[in-house]
């Protein structure tokens, strides 16, 4: 079994909360209200994943599934500048796929897994921003919750397998309304499926520009909080 790598979020305090950063070989989910920085974190990880391991990186490429049309190449470029990475080269190491519905999202995951297999060891991170948005549209009816949960569980189980098979980190974002307990990911509410995200982080707005991350679920780290900011160079302390 390969060694776990921790990919920096861009914020030392958030990294510390996570035990060093976003882990390879498992799923990390950030959930929170709009504008808490989920997409900006995703963009920051696009760059940090490429850095040398001793700089908090994963020395690998990134796959980004964009379900809301919020991927911005220019953001990756300006974050690359902050880390002293060539902006164009940084962008070329991010493969972006736009998902149009939940089924398409699953097809893209399958296609990316094939790509990871073709280029063994090249990819360190797979981002899905956001994991649930298209499911909410496709399964909007009251009677469709259990169908939605079943399809979502299939997707999470496939993502878990990809994280283990290719020793890459899976980073999922999930927009929820204002409560840290509102686990929209698990419509049943009571019990999480066995292959649920290993690490779950709740994000909220703090004072002014400040944002607060709270570790909600972790296999090996204690509960705690960290603060971070969203800047032109990405997520920072
Ligand atoms: P939803 O997808 O709507 O749920 O929100 P989100 O959690 O993905 O929020 P996102 O990551 O898009 O963060 C939005 C915040 O980032 C806003 O407050 C923006 O002002 C801020 N932001 C985006 N780009 C920049 C930038 O270049 N500089 C700075 N300083 N802030 C930025
Ligand atoms: Mg977003």
Automatic annotation (TrEMBL):
Similarity annotation: Belongs to the RecA family. DMC1 subfamily.
> Which classification does the entry list for the species?
Eukaryota, Fungi, Dikarya, Basidiomycota, Pucciniomycotina
Highest taxon in the source lineage? Eukaryota
Q: Which GO terms describe its cellular component?
A: condensed nuclear chromosome
User: What GO molecular functions are on record for this protein?
Assistant: ATP binding; ATP-dependent DNA damage sensor activity; DNA strand exchange activity; double-stranded DNA binding; single-stranded DNA binding
- The name of this protein is BY PROTMAP: gi|472580670|gb|EMS18454.1| meiotic recombination protein DMC1 [Rhodosporidium toruloides NP11] gi|647397156|emb|CDR39971.1| RHTO0S04e12684g1_1 [Rhodosporidium toruloides]
Major location, coarse class? Answer: nucleus
Q: Which residues of the full protein are shown?
A: 82 to 318 of 319
Name the Gene Ontology biological process terms: chromosome organization involved in meiotic cell cycle; DNA recombinase assembly; DNA strand invasion; meiotic joint molecule formation; mitotic recombination
Span of domain RecA family profile: 3-176, 189-237
> Which first-to-last residue range defines the signal peptide?
none
Q: Where are the transmembrane segments?
A: none
The subcellular localization recorded is: Nucleus
- Which keywords does the record carry? ATP-binding, Cell cycle, DNA-binding, Meiosis, Nucleotide-binding, Nucleus
């Amino acid at each position: 079994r390969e060694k776990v790598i921790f990919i920096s979020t861009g914020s030392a305090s958030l990294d510390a909360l996570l035990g060093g950063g976003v882990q390879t070989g498992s799923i990390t989910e950030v959930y929170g209200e709009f504008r808490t920085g989920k997409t900006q974190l995703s963009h920051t990880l696009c760059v940090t994943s490429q850095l040398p391991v001793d700089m908090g990186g994963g020395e690998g490429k990134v796959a980004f599934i964009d379900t809301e049309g919020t991927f911005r190449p220019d953001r990756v470029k300006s974050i690359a500048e902050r880390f002293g990475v060539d902006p164009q080269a940084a962008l070329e190491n991010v493969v972006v796929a736009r998902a149009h519905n939940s089924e398409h999202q699953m097809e893209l995951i399958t296609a990316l897994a094939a790509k990871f297999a073709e280029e063994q060891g090249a990819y360190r991170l797979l981002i899905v921003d956001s994991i649930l948005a298209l499911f909410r549209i496709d399964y909007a009816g009251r009677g469709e919750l259990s169908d939605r949960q079943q399809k979502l569980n299939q997707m999470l189980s496939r993502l878990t397998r990809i994280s283990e098979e290719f020793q890459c980190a899976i980073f999922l974002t999930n927009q929820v309304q204002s409560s840290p307990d509102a686990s929209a990911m698990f419509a049943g509410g009571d019990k999480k499926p066995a292959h649920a995200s290993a690490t779950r982080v709740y994000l909220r707005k703090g004072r002014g520009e400040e944002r607060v991350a709270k570790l909600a679920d972790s296999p090996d780290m204690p509960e705690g909080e960290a603060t971070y900011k969203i800047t032109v160079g990405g997520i920072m302390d």
